[in-house]
Design a protein that fits this description.
It contains twelve helices and 28 strands. By secondary structure, it is α+β, with helices and mostly antiparallel strands. It has three domains: about 240 residues, Beta Barrel (Thrombin, subunit H); about 100 residues, Roll (Pdz3 Domain); about 100 residues, Pdz3 Domain (Roll).
Amino acid sequence: MTLFERVRRQKLLSFSLLLFTLSLGILIGTLINTNVGAARGGGPVAPDATPLSIPAAVKLPSEFTELAKALEPSVVNISTDYTPKESSARRRGPNPDEDEDEDQMDLFRRFFRGPQGQLPAPRFRREATGSGFIVDRNGYIITNNHVVEQADKIKVRLPQNLTEYKARLVGYDPETDIAVIKIDAGKALAPARIGNSEAVQVGDWVMAIGSPFGLEATVTVGIVSATGRDVAGAQQFQHFIQTDAAINPGNSGGPLLNRRGEVIGINTAIATQSGGYQGIGFALPVNTAVNVYNQLIRSGRVTRGSIGISWQKNERPEMLKAIGSDHGVLVEQVTKGGPADKAGIKPEDVLLSLNGRPIKNGDDLVNRVADSPVGSEVKFTLDRAGKKLDVKVVVGDREEVFADRFQRSNGNADQKAPAGTKVKFGIMIQDILPAEREKLNLPDARGIRVTRVEPDSFAEDIGIREKDIIVSINRHPVATSDDVKKIQATLKPGDAVAFRVMRQIPLNRNGEHQWLSQFIAGTLPAE
């Protein structure tokens, strides 16, 4: 074989080897791609598995589902714009042992008011949310007082409706934490059905509806875990229904329902160490709320009876046993000049019965006297040094009996004086009595108080607030309501108006305040 033939054969062999190698690579690549394709859906990975199918939608019957559908149109979302300030709900009760547990009640208040943390500068307005429920087709709504008590503006949103309605405050009662607001929706609304909370039993199923964390129409379910619960820091007339239905920030003011879809409570507070739901919530019985509501829509305030005594709360059974009684209330103090004092009741008397019915304890006594009409006569049977006596007492107004330590906080008024005089700026004003001026420690000898600011008014638009003290208008001194009337009589639409007001702002969390002077001005709108 010649050299040329050997070279030719070697090239041919090399080419054949290269061609074989390429063909083998293509074959292996094809096999790999085929297997990968099968793994990726090109073929069944689990050939022995049966595909799943979705059945036709069948809605399961449930009483909770029906309750939620029926009540959802009646439950509203409430949002407020407010400037943080000292809660007006903190009042000293007539019995020294009724003072609030600051830490516990602060927890309840902040929990439902929304933002927490350090107190911001007063000029920074904040927002908070809560719940409520419609009780009248004309737009009357029940909620918690602490949801709206600091509000500069109250806005209400109906279920599945993006429209925000401005609400006005009809009245409020800090002693039960109930408030009534009203909206004009331009149509008849769907009121919730009211139940009877006296029928509530431990173990009953209940449903809570509200706007926790702003999530509207949220439904939670649980049972009643206790009734008549007294909570540290609660007010004298708050005896709660306890439930394990989840209640969270924003639920406050919403309804607690029984299995018939009737409102049996108003969600008000929780017991928590974290600020969130931990299994125990409290609702004010609806019977209490209805009584408050009826008084607020009738007169704008709540009136409660009193006889003017105090007693030791949570006294030990041995106390009564030592003086020879197995029930009743041991009188500790008698308010001088009050109904009990006038009737001859004395300290160390034991009140045994009221109108023939035995008195269980102090709370039983207070509730029954509070429900008695002011001016009515009631009969007590009492034990005085082992002798039984019958005493007739004329029931007084609780706020008048304890006027020295009880600030008026019901309804639309902050004190006993009339609500004030309406002027065209869109405000209600009131003269300040000399004694009250001294008590308020006002830095200026002049000024009248703003008791109400009308929604959408000139005054609201320029930033005048309730409780502001107007010292001058257009640099004309203001000392009485008549001064304001005289000044406004000289003004016409389009005129500029400058108010100098004194406004009380908090300095710290210890309740210390200071008065600040500022000018507020605007142009009167066309009439």
